[in-house]
Design a protein that fits this description.
Number of strands: 11
Shape: globular
Order of helices and strands: EEEEHHEHEHEEHEHHEHHE
Strand order of the largest sheet: 4-7-6-5-8-9-11-10
Distance between the termini: 33 Å
Strand content: 25-35%
Structural class: alpha/beta
Radius of gyration: 19 Å
Number of helices: 9
């Protein structure tokens, strides 16, 4: 945090910040934010209400460890490396959750010979960020509102936005002029087995609408579809259910029926969009 304090701006007054006694970030006007013992900083002036709790993030972490998202993380890492080679970069994950995507992507980049990359994870859900910081204290983790990001403009070579809402104005502000936004949007078949079980209809053309909005805000450089299917053992099925809001409005009977299965084939269906600022 001390080595990268120049990346931060006070969310209250937009002045630069410094680390004081390795305990807090403080701005020029005296606004201060404590560094938690787990290593993250909470920039929210008041707690934010969120349905995304500890159990959801724990289940997402278990699904990540199972390898369900590995092909997605590898695709993202490969695309970053294709643009930069082995040069160190600054990478921001907007909506990082419990940090499993950012952590795995950076690990893959390091294995490929890319060292020295600064990784920053930002999310409004404190439980997710706390879990991320506890497991990966060498990265920078922030609890913050995406609309009022506590980060300096034109600081990042890449911004990741993985299956979460976008704030394109902030992405424009935070990206370097030659930087890249990588957004992952769901396809029609994404988690289709859960949707079928919970009788949750796909929103018509949701993927195309998300891509259209992306094009409105960024110049689309590349669009890469990815579809895989994983066989989940019985002990992973409860985590597949709990990791997504799809189950929040499902009836108990449907959930129990899934939990009684000896295995579940689950589909990952997404599209990777890479964009740059319009010039």
């Amino acid at each position: 945090m001390a080595n990268h304090s120049h990346l931060f701006l006070c969310p209250l007054c937009s002045t630069s910040m410094r680390v004081e006694e390795l305990r807090q970030l403080i701005c020029r006007k005296g606004h201060s934010f404590d560094i938690a013992k787990q290593g993250y900083v909470n920039f929210l002036p008041r707690p934010a209400a969120s349905k995304y709790g500890q159990s959801l993030f724990r289940s997402r972490s278990m699904m990540s460890e199972s390898g369900f998202f590995e092909s997605l993380d590898r695709l993202i890492a490969c695309q970053i490396l294709a643009h930069i080679g082995n040069q160190p970069v600054r990478l921001l994950d907007m909506g990082c959750g419990e940090g499993s995507h950012l952590t795995r992507i950076l690990d893959m980049m390091q294995t490929a010979g890319c060292h020295g990359t600064a990784g920053v994870g930002l999310d409004i859900a404190k439980e997710g960020v706390r879990m991320a910081a506890s497991r990966q204290p060498h990265l920078l983790w922030c609890v913050a509102d995406l609309a009022r990001s506590p980060l300096a403009g034109r600081s990042f070579d890449f911004i990741l936005n993985i299956l979460s809402p976008s704030n394109y104005a902030q992405c424009q502000r935070l990206l370097k002029d030659d930087g890249f936004l990588i957004k992952i949007i769901p396809g029609d078949g994404h988690l289709q087995e859960l949707r079928t079980a919970f009788r949750t209809a796909n929103r018509s053309n949701s993927g195309s609408k998300l891509e259209e909005r992306f094009r409105d805000n960024f110049k689309l450089i590349q669009s890469l579809p990815l579809r895989t299917r994983s066989k989940l053992d019985a002990d992973l099925i409860p985590h597949a259910i709990a990791m997504t809001p799809l189950s929040w409005h499902a009836d108990i009977g449907s959930i129990h029926s899934l939990q009684e299965l000896s295995f579940l084939d689950l589909t990952l269906d997404v599209t990777l969009l890479i964009g740059q600022k319009h010039r």
